Amino acid sequence: MTKEISLNQLKDFQAQLEARPEHSVVERAVTKNGIFKSAADYRAEVNMDPVFSIDLDTGDVANQKQSGRCWMFAALNTMRHQMKDNFRVAKDFELSQSYTFFWDKLEKSNYFYENVLKTADLPTSDRKVAWLMTTPQQDGGQWDMFMAIVEKYGVVPKSVMPESFSSSASREFNATLNLKLRKDAVELRELVATGTSEADIQARKEKMLAEVYRMAAYSFGEPPTKFDFEYRDTDNNYHLDRDLTPQEFFKKYVGWNLDDYVSIINAPTADKPYNHMYTVEMLGNVVNGRPVRHLNVDMDTFRKISIAQLKAGESVWFGSDVGQESDRQKGILDTNLYHKDELFGVDLSMSKAERLDYAQSLMTHAMVLTGVDLVDDKPTKWKVENSWGDKVGNNGFFVMSDDWMEEFCYQVVVNKKYLPQELQEVLKEEPKVLAPWDPMGALA
Questions:
Q1: Calpha distance 165→307 (Å, rounded)
Q2: Which one is catalytic: 81, 174, 178, 365?
Q3: Which pLDDT belongs to residue 1?
Q4: Which residue in 1, 39, 193, 328 is a FRET match for 363, CA 20 to 30 A apart?
C-alpha cells in the first residue's frame, strides 16, 4: 500500500532537524558554499603530495578537449611513452587521435547496422532494441575496441593527421551521426520486415556506410594511406622515414604484439566470480574484429600486476569512475577528499559491488598509471597521467590514493606475462556473455 508524506511527519522532520546542535552552522555553510566545498578535507591535499618511489618520465600530457576520446588518448599515450624511450622523440610528440577517431566512427556505424539487422525481428519496445537506439554510437570505447582499430588500420603521428574542429569538440558530429544512424535503422528494419533479400540489404547498408565515410571525411579530414615521418630527436638529430603506411609505422615504431596485452577487471559482484573470463553482448566496433574480453580478479592481484608493469618501466592503461570523490582542478582522487556523510549526518557508505549493482558507479574515464609510491612494498598512492591538458592537477598529472583505486578503479591493461601462470591459463577460457547494459560494458 502506498503512503504519502503527512503533515505530522513534516513537523517531526523539522523538529528532528532543529534538535541537531550543528544545524544552523551546517545550513549556513552549505547554502553559501555548496556540498563539496563544505565537506572538503584539506588533509587529503597534504596526503596526496605528488612524490612517488616509482615515477616514469612520460613526457607532456595531451588534451582530449571537448570529446570523449579518453580511451584513445590513454592507449596512444602508452604507445608514445615507449616511442619516447626507444626513439627519443620529443616530450610533446603525440600519435594522431583524430586518425583512430575517424576509423572508430566508421566501424561503430557498421557495428550498429549489423546489430540492428540482428534484432530486426524484435519490437522497438524490446530492451535490446531500446538500448541500441538510446545511443547508436558515442565517443567512448574499450581497450579491445581500440586494439581492433589498430590491428586493422595502424596508427600515424599527429603531424600527419592533426586535430579538427569536430575531433576536438565532437558533440555536433555525434548528434548528426546518431540522427543518421537512427534514420537508417528505420529503413533496415523495414527492409527485413518486407522480406528483402540479404544481398539487397547489404547493398543498401554499403550506401549508408559510404555516406558515413563522407560525413567523417568532411568532419575530420581524410585519413592518410602513406606518409613521411620526419622528426628531430631529443639530441637534435634529424630523422626522415619515407612512404610509410599506418600499419608499417605501427610495426616499426610501436612494435607491440597486441595479443600480449589483456584487459583485467575488478568487479566484485555475485554474477562475476573471480578468475574467469567475461565479454559483453553487442559491445564492440570492428565487425569480426578483436572481441572485448575481461579477466576478473581480486584487488590484490589487480594491484600487483599493475606494479609489476610499472617496475618494468611500462605505463598502465586503466579505467575508473573519475567523477567520484575527485577534485579536477587540484588533480586529486581520494576517498577522504570529502566527508559528505559527516556533513549531513547520514550514512552514504556502499560497497564496490553494491555501487555496481545499483547503478551508483561504473567506468567513465580512462587514464594512465605512470608511477606508484611504495612504502614497505605496499602502494599508498599512484601517479596518473590524464588527458585534460596541463592546466589541471600537477601539469596535467593527478594523484590517486590507494583507497580510491580500491573503490573506483575497474580495469587495467597489462602484458599477460605479468599474470601468474594459473591466470594466463584462464585467458584461454571461453568468456561468459554479459548483458549489453552490464556495468563492465561501460565505455570510458
A1: 38
A2: 365
A3: 84
A4: 39
Q: Which amino acid is at 25?
A: V
Contact yes or no for 348/436 (Cβ under 8 A)? no
Q: Please tell me whether the overall predicted TM-score, pTM, comes out greater than 0.85 for this model.
A: yes
Q: Is 8 a catalytic residue?
A: no
Cell 566512427 found at: 105
Q: What is the pLDDT of residues 10-63, one digit of tens each?
A: 999 999 999 999 999 999 999 999 999 999 998 988 999 999 999 999 999 999
Give the closest residue to 400 by CA, choosing from 53, 41, 50: 50
- Among residues 63, 174, 178, 386, which one is catalytic? 386
Cα dist. 38→138, 315, 334, 342, 400 in Å?
A: 35, 36, 16, 11, 22
Q: What is the rounded distance in angstroms from the CA atom of residue 340 to the CA atom of residue 152?
A: 47
Work out the burial of residue 179: count CB atoms within 10 Å of its CB; fewer than 13 is exposed, 13-18 middle, 19 or more buried: exposed
CB 279 within 8 A of CB 293: yes
Write the pLDDT tens digit of every residue in 56-88. 999 999 999 999 999 999 999 999 999 999 999
* Contact residues for 186 (Cβ-Cβ < 8 A; gap 6+): none
CA distance 187 to 214: 20
Q: Is 70 a catalytic residue?
A: yes
Catalytic option among 63, 70, 115, 296: 70
Give me 133's grid cell.
537506439
Counting Cβ atoms within 10 Å, is residue 1 exposed (0-12), middle (13-18) or buried (19+)? exposed
Residue 309: in which H helix or E strand, if any?
helix 299-311
Please, is 340 exposed, middle or buried when counting C-beta atoms within 10 Å of its C-beta (0-12, 13-18, 19+)? middle
SS3 119: coil
365 catalytically annotated: yes
Grid cell locating 307? 606494479
* CA 145/CA 411 separation, integer angstroms: 14
The distance of Cα 257 from the centroid of its chain, to the nearest Å, equals 22
Q: Contact 247/153 with Cβ under 8 angstroms?
A: yes
